[in-house]
Amino acid sequence: MAEPYPPVEPYAHGLLEVGDGNRIYWETSGNPRGKAALWVHGGPGSGGRRGARGMFDPEVFRIVLFDQRGCGESLPHAADPSVGLEHNTTDHLIADMERLREHLGIDRWLLYGGSWGSTLILAYAERYPERVSEIVISGVTMTRPDEIDWLYRGVGRLLPGAWETFRDAVPEAERGGGLVAAYDRLVNSPDEAVRVKAARAWCAWEDAVIAHEALGSPGYYSDKTDDALMAFVRICAHYFSHDAWLEDGQLLRDAHRLAGIPAVLIHGRLDLGSPLKTAWELSKAWPDAELKVIDDSGHTGSPTLRGAVLEAIARFGAGHTGSRT
Does 149 participate in catalysis according to the annotation? Predict the structure, then answer.
């Protein structure tokens, strides 16, 4: 089974001013003259896992990681209830990625990510297709209203006990409506106890959805520090209660803008939270994208899925002639 590359440390990092009082953390590792590749983390609000560096050959790639607004090492941090999220939207994140590309002097880059990262990659690539060389996605999402409704209501048909617990953590009067909007209100309560209780209930539900993924990372969502967990839930609820500020079906409708960008879409057949249908629909609308379905993987991956990602990234790096200085 393919294994990640040995750990590498950044040769440069910093905080980039992106406006509205926000500074996003970025770092570069690997080969300074290598093929540029950007890891786009999920969540939204998870922060960039530094282990993602290991998915790239450090001799071949100039590896760029960044933390999206409000999370990870970016400032200010959304764990602080006084930090507003009005300047934290999909359009802001797209602009941040483009500003980072310009800051680093990169002409075009490979984009790799999954889950929410998939949505952000697609939104950026449809806005700036000329800046994207290739795309690798593991866990395809487009954050459409029906996808959000499935994750926070529909999949409860398969997990009725855990879903009722998730539902019942909001006031009774709000249980028949939009649960995500109710949670968005709760995690912004002036009462710390209310915020913490809601954030933990949200992550307990997310963990219930992936609990069957024995080859992946069951318990992934609750296994965060208190600050990381609060920022994650605040940002998730903020984005999903606004349908990520995307028109319904926008990313699929505009998939023609991705023409000419080679891609590999890798999706676990056992992904309950983000069913295969989304990846299937995108592959049909994007002839340059190859779809690989991983039978033993759910949303948080498996050794087989990891191997497929490593193979896809290595394939796109083959033949690059950059050399170290």
Answer: no
The CA distances from residue 84 to 126, 187, 286, in Å, are 28, 12, 37
Long-range CB contacts for residues 272-276, cutoff 8 Å, separation at least 24:
272/155, 272/158, 272/209, 272/210, 272/212, 272/298, 272/299, 273/150, 273/151, 273/155, 273/206, 273/209, 273/210, 273/299, 274/115, 274/139, 274/140, 274/141, 274/147, 274/151, 274/299, 275/150
Name the residue among 114, 120, 84, 118 with its Cα closest to residue 235: 84
Q: What is the pLDDT of residue 325?
A: 37
Query: Which residue among 29, 92, 271, 297 is the active-site one?
Result: 271
242 tagged catalytic: no
What pTM was computed for the model? 0.97
Q: Per the residue annotation, which of 115, 274, 283, 302 is the catalytic one?
A: 115
**pLDDT per position as a tens digit, 302-318:** 999 999 999 999 999 99
112 forms bridges with which residues in the sheet?
A: 39, 136
Enumerate residues 6+ apart whose C-beta is below 8 A from 249.
144
Measured CA to CA in angstroms, residue 105 lies from 22, 33, 62, 276, 305 at distances of 21, 11, 12, 36, 32
